[in-house]
Amino acid sequence: MEYNFNKIEKKWQIYWKKKKIFNKKILYKKKKYYILNMFPYPSGEGLHVGHPIGYIASDIYARYKNSQGENVINPIGFDSFGLPTEQYSIQTGIHPNIMTKINIKRYKIQLLRLGISFDWDRELNTSDSTYFKWTQWMFIKMFNSWYDKKLEKARSIKILINEFNFNGNRNINAFSTFKKRFSADEWKKKKNFEKEKILQNYRIAFLSKRSVNWCPKLGTVLANDEIKENLSKRGGYPVYKKRMLQWSLRISAYSERLLNGLNKVNYPDNLKKSQKSWIGKESGIKIFFSLEKNEKIKLEIFTIKPYMLFGVTFIIIPLGSYFLERKKITNIVDKQYINDVKKYLLNFSLKEKEISGIFTGNYVLHPLTKKKIPVYISSFIKDDYNLNSIMCVPAHEIKSYKFAKKFGIKILEVLSIKSSEKIFCINSSFLNGLNLKNSFFFIKKILLNKNFGKKSISFKLKDAVFSRQRYWGEPIPIYYENNIPKTINKLPLLLPYMDLPYMDISHNEINSPLTRAKFWAWDKKNKKIVYTNLINKKTIFPLETNTMPSWAGSSWYYFRYMDPKNKNFFLNKRKENYWKNVDLYVGGIEHATGHLIYARFWHKFLKDYGLVNSEEPFKKIINQGMILVKSAIIYRNKKKKYYISYSLLNLKKKNDFQKINIDIKYIKNKNEVDIEKIKTWRSELNNSKFILDNGKFTCNRILEKMSKSKYNVINPDFIYNKYGADTFRMYEMFLGPLEKSKIWNIKNIDGIYNFLKKFWNFFHKKGKFYVDENYPSKEELEILYKTIKKIKNSLESFSFNIPISEFMIFLNKLIRMKCYKRQILEPITILFSFYAPHISEEIWYKLGKKKSIYFANFPKNNLNSLLEKYFNYPVTFNGKFRFKIKFKKSEPIQKIEKKLLNNEKIILFLKNKKPKKIFIILNKIINIVF
RNA sequence: GCGGGUAUGGUGAAAUUGGUAUACACACUAGAUUUAGGAUCUAGUAUCUUUACAGAUAUGGGGGUUCAAAUCCCUUUACCCGCACCA
Q1: Which of residues 63-102 of A touch strand B (CB under 7 A)?
Q2: Residue A70: pLDDT over 90
């Protein structure tokens, strides 16, 4: 009887859906187990073969846990707001709302075909207003919060305002960028907008100036992802950094907690390392450099290398620094000057690789030598909002060195480096001859004693920018009353419908598409959205035109799965109490920092208000490896915009060309590009000149991860069609260890397909299903139990590739033994169902079972009852294996040794030499050294 | 530049976590079967020496610890991933 996977798979997928086999409820008697895959983004490309690896692995684990009697939820949904959809819409003219629906539908079809035990009743979608209503609600909660350092938690802003009214900010220990002190009277005298300006320094969701990547030619703000070598990937136009007022979330307030929380979770070490370095706690010292013109004004410069202080020959104020907005700095250089500088630097372009900067005309005094040190403004060394200024030691810092060379600044060596361990100070007065450790403590002591500096701990973690100049994101529920941001509490605040193309490329200002919406103003009285032209600033006010970033919705989605349809609240308390948090989170390592930091922050914020009980969202994380594949790269001349065949590219002039990824489906014969077809891909390619080599245009092929942004994805559909989902599932697991990255290769899939056929045929004799009802032999049972044990161990250690080999070995043995016994085959079918649920379900049904195999218990393993009395010792000579000798397991070492010395085979091997020593490791190995 | 990871036959990979290296597959070779095959079955398949028996050498390279190393330590090379380019 033929293995007809099409028929079998369709049949059971319909059955599972109809009977709601995978839908879960709270069962207080059962232990819960929450498995989650990282949120998929439904792009227009559909799934690629890399995505399912995580889904399949977690499904195998979910089915395994379920078979052990745990109440497993394994939900899925879609992170559906975001840039790719918006861009695709601009290109095609299909509204993102519709586009998203189409994409989700397609993803769903692809996912359903995999036979994963997803609980589809819990499906959610971030662009659905029933979901983002709560994202907006949480944003408002953050807006109305400040961080109390005394209690180490977020609290209501009302408490803070109340305190200001009574005592000013004297007694407040808040996490804030506001450093001045004020009294209650001073506070009360302030005007509303002044008050709000101060409060912005405390709020967890707050407004501040942050930089964006601005591409004037495209008239839009670009993501880092859309830029290569400071040119836009689309069109190759220059990109500038521009600062604008944006919403941020004060994640930095949670730095310490985010760091400490890592001790409580089970993440891979490399992931923890990434998070730690991202949070970047450093203890160092803040050194005061006073201004030459006015010694009262001091720059406070943080460093972890104070022992290089004598080598400081210039100071840099980062162009993006908050410091440039402060009054303090306007005393150094006036505001007009800063604006001019900014304009100059912007036009110079903010290519970070290019050395750019400008001298402020000011000097600070070295705290110890009192020498004059010039102050520059630049974004070359490090452009960071949180830094006020940087001390530069060109002798020992590569970038400072380059900068010093260009501007003719003195270079002073202060370290003698003989090897990585032998470093000591030179040219540094009292530090001379000291090693790094000692000089650190010595200079720290002196600086602190003389009040030239203070102890300081810094975190690298920055506040997260929360505004996007995009249409397709959650609207920020804020309107502006006389420039004061006010919250909209009637939620959800829906996106206005906009005709396409709503993003007019001819705009020269940085604007969000919503600034062009006709129906985007807030009627305060009637609490509703009205036409933009009705704004009168009395009752009708402008609405916020930025939208939220796509990580907003994905920062708390795992909670919503616990209670996806709740209309009254984001999560019912009783449900939260049962499901708590995620037990196993499966996803790519690329989310190690961004998403995981944001989600952990968001979780902690909700915990501060008692809305959830746990401190961490994810108890355990495993990362699946990436799929690597050969991408296709073509080269575009940066200035003249023509494309050149890779075969003609002069490698010396490589820097004149921008690398562009093109879709691998336009490649024929290894590396030849189909010019006619590729011109239809992108309009800019259609209008460009291609320089051919002998009538051919070739591209460069490089190994990269499979990703839609690299246009190298391979769609799994043709694999399901040819081999079926069960083969595909097994094959993806057979590729190798889950966490390892692997080069995509379809070559070995026939082996898996043959194996499934073999498995199927094993149950069918001459076209009829057949099992033997006799009791199995000891040998047969032993093989079964050993296999169960091995598979269990492998699953426990998340080694999903190993059980497949075990299945093969097991089946080969049964075939050799002609064993078709029910008591052997039933347990193995249960194990098999984790990997290949459809074929197993069909066989289970043929075995006469009435209930789905999903409800079968994990098979018992009675191996101990069968264990043999003897152990077959491998005998090695000087570590080299020769043969085996059997001894009783209980035989003591002394007796074994005696027997070994009289053994003929061993005597023969020793050739009359006397063994120096014999190592006997009980029930493991014998090593004879001679 | 910094941080993280990987390396075992022609290929994907196993190795009870320091104890018989290359299980299980793919591919290849030979044979059987079928009208034929991309189907099925059997045997062989790390490298070198050897007709064979057998022996030697092999886990990216070099060194070390150990009775014993793919596994631990030092060093080095290549490739992949990430980045807020630590100043």
Answers
A1: none
A2: yes
